[in-house]
Amino acid sequence: MDELKRVQYLGRIGIxxxxxPDARFLAALQLAHLQNIFFxxxxxxxGEPMGLEEKHLFEKIALKxxxxxxxxxxxxxxxxxxxxxxxxxxxSARVVLADGRLxxxxxxxxxxxxxxxxxxxxVGFGDTFTKPLxxxxxxxxxxxxxxxxxxxxxxxxxxxxxxxxxxxxxQYQFTIQARQVxxxxxxxxxxxxxxxxxxxxxxxASLAIPGxxxxxxxxxxxxxxxxxxxxxxxIAPDDYLNVLYQEFGVSKQQ
Length: 254
Known about the structure:
This protein has 254 residues and is an alpha+beta fold. The protein is built from seven helices and 13 strands. It has an eight-stranded antiparallel β-sheet with strand order 5-4-3-2-9-8-7-6, with helices on one face. Helix 1 packs parallel to helix 4 (54-63). It is globular.
C-alpha cells in the first residue's frame, strides 16, 4: 500500500496522521476502523463482484465507503498495518456455532500483531472486542460492560467473552500459524455461493458505535449496548434502502 492509499484509508476511518507503530496507535486504528467501516454481506445479495486483491478491496472499502466480510476487512486492514510499520501475520479461526460445534478451518480471518508482545486484532467479526487483546492466556481484559480473555487449549487459543457477568462464552478458536490470503479463498467462495453459508440467508450490515452496535439484519434494525440493552425495529421492504443509506451511508447504486 503506497503513501497516497495509506492517507486515503486513514482518512476513511477518521485518523488524521500516521503515528509510531505501537500498542496505543494499534488500538486507535482498530477502534476507528470498527466505528467507520461496517461489517456487511451486501455484495453477496446484490450480485456484486468480490475479490481479495488489494486494489479491489481498496476501491470498495476506502473509496466507495463500503464494508465487507472478515476476509475483506481484515485483509485490507492487515495491508494498512504493514504499510504503517507493524509486523503482522494472518491467522485462521474456527467460529463457535449455535450448537457448540466449531466451524471449518479458515471460516474466519484474524490478525496477530507482533509488538513487544503479540496482540490479537480483528475488524471483521461483529460484536466482539473493539480494541486489540494481548495474546496472554488467562489475562482478563476489560471493555465497557464486557470482559475478554484468551484461554489456551493445546496449540489453540480460545477467544472468550463475558457480557455483564453472564459467564464466559467462546467466540472462536485459532492457532498462531501464519496464513496467506490465498489460504482463505475456498471459504471466501463458499460464503459467497453456498446455500449452507449463513451469509446467504439475509442481507446484513453492522457497525460499532459508542457504547454498542447497530445492525440492519434482514428487515430488522437492531441496536445493542455494552450494558446488554437491545431494541429492534421492523423495516418495511420499501424503506429498506433508505434505512441502509441513513444508518450506514451506502446505497445500492454505488
